[in-house]
Design a protein that fits this description.
With 188 residues, this protein is mostly helical. Helix content is 51%, strand content 7%. It is flat, with a radius of gyration of 26 Å. Belongs to the TMA16 family.
Length: 188
């Protein structure tokens, strides 16, 4: 009977079986299949619960956000302090207007709206990540910014760009976490 999916219920044995018997191997396959199904279920549950909450942005979304928030008239940010100001003003503060509007609409003594809670959670998570250290595209490098503006959002092209880790707890430190493999970045 090839192709039949055996379950632990169909393999119930009244007496003990030999460790190298056909039934023992069937039982091992059934247990392995059950374990894989449970693991897949846990992964789906984690993904479903992550979608329900306001999770921090994915890498592609974060890069696109930084590129779109950077003004067109600037070819790059002049120094690390300007980079920190850019993050705290534009990136972390991009939802401030909507949050203020939602807080104004909220009636006293009522529960917060779902959108308000999502935005507050998102803002708190991003601020925590910025405090601990956040990996961002290097906007102080003019070549890197030009490459990012030409980029169409392909996730496979991410290794081409230069990334740095910066933190609000140490504003003088900037560590290169990905030097970028693009040929225009090699000489810089």
């Amino acid at each position: 009977m090839g192709g039949k999916k055996h379950t632990s219920k169909t393999l119930i044995q009244k007496d003990a079986m030999h460790p190298k018997s056909r039934h023992a191997f069937q039982k091992a396959r059934v247990m392995l299949r059950q374990w894989r199904l449970n693991e897949a279920k846990h992964v789906r549950d984690r993904q479903k619960s992550a979608k329900g909450t306001a999770a921090p942005l994915t890498t592609v979304d974060r890069i696109m956000t930084f590129v779109l928030l950077l003004p067109e008239d600037k070819s790059h940010l002049p120094d690390l302090y300007a980079f920190h100001d850019f993050i705290s003003t534009f990136y972390l503060g991009r939802h401030d207007e909507e949050l203020a509007m939602l807080r104004k609409e909220q009636r006293p003594g009522r529960l917060k709206s779902k959108r308000l809670m999502e935005l507050e959670d998102l803002q708190a998570a991003e601020q925590q990540e910025y405090r601990e250290g956040i990996d961002v595209p290097d906007l102080c490098n003019e070549t890197n910014v030009a490459l990012l503006r030409e980029w169409k959002g392909d996730p496979q092209a991410i290794p081409l760009f230069r990334f740095v880790r910066i933190s609000s707890s140490d504003r003088d430190l900037c560590r290169v976490v990905q030097p970028g493999t693009h040929k225009r970045l090699q000489g810089v």
